[in-house]
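Each field is listed here:
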Amino acid sequence: MLLRVAGGLLIALAGALLAVWAHIPLPWMLGALLVTAATRIAGLGTACPRPARNAGQWVIGTSLGLYFTPQVIGHIGANAGPIVAGMLFALGLAFMGTAMLRRYTDVDFKTAWFSSAIGGASEMASLAERHGARIDRVATAHSVRVLLVVVTVPFIFQWWGVAGLDPTVPGPRDVHGAGLVALVALTCVGGLAFMKLRLPNPWVLGPMLIAMLLTSNRVELSGLPEFVPKVGQLFIGWSLGDRYRPDFFRAAPRFMAVVAAFTVGALALAFGLGALLSLWSAAPIPTLILGTTPGGIAEMAITAKVLQLGVPVVTAFHVSRMVFVVLVTGPIYAFLARRQRNSA
């Protein structure tokens, strides 16, 4: 097992360094993701242990929390309306994806619904299992969606040339040894508490909440060393790429094609919604688009951070959307299922 993990890490690192050399956007995440996924699909038996993904998520969560100074929180409050619009947009996408999967594939309603909900992949898989949906299809749908969003959006934004349009400087930037130790300890306690309480995305949201509470109250223990965000991106990319298996493209190709078409449509709608929300918000259009894209919190936050596109606003959009979707997806499914049974 140790050799499989070491081999996986070396492959992910090689992919990241190759991406840095090729000047592709988000090289430490995308390079690790693409090369790891390619080798796993090719049949190479490497492995990424769960603690590596947790560590990557901890880095992202902690670094995000350090952006939430009192001034930034006020700026987020000014975007409350657009953030609510983004939450409702995500719910609308779930109905759109469900309709497409029901129309063009053979999956049942419950599988189509949980495959289309724009929430965390693990949370949606857990809900799917609880309600008797096909977990393999649900997991595949979210893998395809996240992969497409993570790969396409940074290239679109790089081609667009909008990097640095909405920079936000994190609170504490200087690294202090004792303060860094205290920051690591406190944020890890936050992650463990979220995990113990079985809350969604514990190693992103737990550390982020602790770092945010500290920063918003002007308690600046330490910044993170410059290399740490790169390591976090590497681990996130490695763990995403490790999900893929040799039979990935052979399993339900029609289902995956419809999920891909849904994702492309959702991205197009997100670009349109971002442009509309700019009439309501002072945030730049690229920031609003990134806030409404159907990607994961960690991946979209990394994109915002590297491209300097309003990290706190994008984070607020995605955290609010994820919490909202996780809370309402199950009850809405139960309501719709009852209506179907009553009308049958």
Remarks:
- The chain has 15 helices and no strands.
- The first helix runs from residue 2 to 22.
- The radius of gyration is 20 Å.
